[in-house]
Amino acid sequence: MKRSGTFAIALVGLCMAPFAGFSQEGATDEDLLTQANNPLASFNTLNFQNQYNGSLTGLDDKTSNSFFLRGALPVNAFGGDWLVRATLPVNTIPVAGDSVTGIGDFNVFAAYLIDTGNPSLSFGIGPQITAPTATEDETGQGKWSAGLANVLFSFADPNFQWGYLLTWQASFAGDEDRKDVNAGAFQPFAIRQLGDGWYARSTAIWTYDFETGNYNVPIGAGLGKVFRTKRAVVNVFAEPQVSIASAGPGQAEWGVFAGINFQFPR
Questions:
Q1: Could you tell me if 152 and 123 are in contact, meaning their C-beta atoms sit under 8 angstroms apart?
Q2: Is 161 left (phi over 0), alpha (psi -120 to 50) or beta?
Q3: H or E segment and range at residue 106
Q4: How far apart are CA 174 and CA 155, in angstroms?
Q5: Residue 27: its pLDDT value, please?
């Protein structure tokens, strides 16, 4: 089974023009709770996240794991506001009788932040590219790929936030002996504030491979806790997930997505 870090896209670390001046100092607890899970909030971010898959279709007694090192940086370029996010995974992939661990493919996307006219609705869209940086054949695609990323986040209700992250990419260069890439991912997310910094979350990523027709549709239900330190807003979470529909070998039947995110207000 071949995997890249592209499909496991997390929730934290973009920026939106109306929040370009958002500051942790003087912010209310309600502001921090809302923006901690806003993928378009005006923060520099550093995320350590992990996706464990405890059962894979067509592969008896096999598991896989991806650890993601992610960073995001709001920038101003070409006359507008952008969010640039980079992801480098370390993947553990099952092979015959064993497993292989190595660095995966490096992914970057840049979302141009569009002023929707509604200060409680954030929207961004832009290009993405994936470089074949995998240290093992099994931990990456062996292809250069490019495509688009689109993010939306609504925080009109301080008790409930929702949105999505949609990505697509296709290969254009790389190892001719490796399979072409043409894949999409859709991540709907819902955040329900529970009080005292606690929240419930559902953020599982749906994937579709346009080359093979393979797909996976998981749902998740987890908990998180947001708190602030002198230098950062910290967001810790764990989310069990289970697949409700899938096709093709190597699809995760269940798993756990967990991590710790650090937001550093500008």
A1: yes
A2: beta
A3: strand 106-114
A4: 41
A5: 55
Q: Are 191 and 160 in contact (CB under 8 A)?
A: yes
* Amino acid occupying residue 116: T
**Token output for 41:** 């909030």
**CB-based contacts of 195: which residues, under 8 Å, 6+ apart?**
none
Local structure of residue 34 (DSSP, 8 states): H
Residue in 36, 43, 48, 35 with CA at minimum distance from that of residue 14: 43
Residue 246, pLDDT score: 97
The secondary structure of residue 139, as a DSSP letter, is G
- The contacts of residue 117 (CB under 8 Å, 6+ apart) are none
DSSP run (H or E) holding 231: none
pLDDT along the chain (266 residues), means of 10: 33 29 48 72 89 94 95 90 94 91 97 90 95 96 97 91 96 95 97 94 97 97 94 95 97 97 85
| Tokens read off for 37 | 């899970």
Q: Compute and round to an integer the Cα radius of gyration of the chain.
A: 18
Query: Residues 6 or more apart from 199 whose CB is under 8 A from it?
Result: 33, 37, 191, 192, 193, 223, 224, 225, 226
Q: How far is the CA of 161 from the CAs of 62, 171, 198, 212, 247, in angstroms?
A: 35, 34, 14, 34, 31
Alpha carbons within 13 angstroms on the beta-carbon side of residue 130 total 32
First vs last Cα of the chain: how many Å apart? 41
- SS3 of residue 36 by DSSP: helix
Quick count: other Cβ atoms within 10 Å of Cβ 76? Answer: 12
Specify the residue for token string 């350590």. 48
Looking at residue 33, its pLDDT comes to 67
Angle at 239 between CA 214 and CA 257, to 5 degrees: 55
SS3 for 2?
coil
